[in-house]
């Protein structure tokens, strides 16, 4: 498959997402119950984001749909996307999603992975200019407040390669904050990233773990690329991965194997390969064309894409979320051809 997004790939991802964002079951809820009245099904709890196996996957399934719709507004699936969005993205449903967050039991709901994806969705809606960003704004601002309340309390980063990774959440929040002109949120994300990671040196890259879909090492580098100017980043990166010119740590250049794509946790490893490709492309875009590490990073991205792109669809345990990570990788960097 191509290393760039094509109309055909966009249409495939649109059809895939349309097949799951309104599919209520099977469903894995992140739901703390405060009493017997809270024992409700996904659609009753989340009238917009009830599909795609879990809340966060539904959110970034919609990000996938709106992203490909913006890039290919005349695609055959466009009318279906708009019709389903008109049906689900209503003021009443946004109010219900927002009210869910106000529950005392929801303080830790989807922290921080779902927070980041909701803001990424909001950032994408802003690019459309069709009023949906305004409609979603109460929910968007509720998640902005989640960040601004939590980050000052977060003395330490979370470096795992799963949903709790804080570098990923900050990276997505910065896309929203910069696009929306939220200087306060952007500054808070930068401050926390620098506090957590500016002194990191000689990363050992102990990865992958069995159920990771993010590279703790490369995700951190992709975040620091966003919070530092280019010269400062390159100095930091030289110290963070000092043997990159020798393709070390070697694990960062070897796509993860996936032994069983019907197992949702093992299928995470396809996502690891896609997210590594995304990070490698973003890192490469910051390196000088004469820097030999740039070619190494581009080749690593290509290798990981080749391992993962054929498996974005095919089994529901992967296809309910993998297209979003494929899009991140396919759209990343300005590397030329």
Notes on the protein architecture:
The chain has 2 domains: 189 residues; 128 residues, no CATH class. The two termini are 16 Å apart. The protein has 15 helices and no strands. The protein is an all-alpha fold.
Structural class: mainly alpha
**Overall body shape:** globular
Report the radius of gyration as a whole number of Å: 19 Å
> What is the tally of beta strands?
0
Count of discrete alpha- or pi-helical segments spanning 4 or more residues: 15
Q: What is the chain-wise order of helices and strands?
A: HHHHHHHHHHHHHHH
* Ends apart, CA distance between termini: 16 Å
Q: Give the helix level as a range of percent.
A: 55-70%
Question: Hey, roughly how much beta strand do the residues contain?
Answer: under 5%
- Low-confidence parts: none
Number of structurally distinct domains: 2
């Amino acid at each position: 498959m191509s290393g760039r997004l094509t109309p055909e790939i966009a249409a495939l991802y649109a059809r895939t997402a349309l097949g799951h964002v309104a599919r209520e079951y099977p469903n894995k809820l992140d739901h703390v119950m405060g009493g017997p009245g809270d024992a409700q099904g996904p659609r009753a709890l989340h009238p917009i984001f009830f599909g795609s196996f879990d809340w966060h996957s539904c959110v970034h399934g919609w990000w996938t749909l709106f992203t490909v719709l913006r890039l290919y507004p005349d695609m055959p699936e466009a009318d279906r996307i708009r019709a389903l969005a008109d049906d689900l993205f209503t003021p009443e449903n946004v109010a219900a999603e927002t009210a869910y967050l106000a529950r005392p039991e929801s303080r830790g709901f989807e922290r921080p992975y779902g927070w980041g994806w909701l803001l990424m969705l909001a950032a994408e809606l802003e690019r459309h200019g069709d009023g949906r960003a305004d409609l979603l704004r109460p929910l968007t601002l509720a998640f902005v407040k989640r960040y601004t309340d939590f980050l000052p309390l977060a003395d330490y980063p979370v470096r795992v390669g799963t949903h709790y990774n804080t570098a990923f959440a900050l990276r997505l929040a910065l896309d929203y904050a910069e696009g929306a002109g939220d200087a306060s949120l952007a500054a808070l994300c930068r401050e926390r990233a620098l506090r957590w990671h500016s002194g990191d040196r000689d990363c050992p890259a102990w990865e992958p773990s069995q159920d990771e879909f993010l590279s703790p090492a490369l995700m951190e580098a992709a975040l620091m690329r966003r919070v530092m100017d280019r010269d400062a980043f390159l100095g930091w990166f030289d110290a963070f991965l000092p043997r990159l010119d020798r393709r070390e740590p070697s694990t960062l250049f070897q796509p993860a194997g996936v032994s069983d794509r019907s197992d949702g946790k093992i299928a995470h490893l396809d996502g690891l390969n896609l997210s590594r490709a995304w990070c490698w492309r973003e890192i490469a875009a910051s390196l000088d064309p004469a820097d030999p590490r740039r070619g190494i990073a581009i080749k690593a991205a290509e290798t990981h894409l080749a391992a993962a792109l054929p498996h974005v669809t095919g089994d529901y345990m992967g296809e309910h979320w993998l297209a979003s990570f494929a899009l991140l990788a396919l759209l990343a960097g300005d590397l030329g051809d």
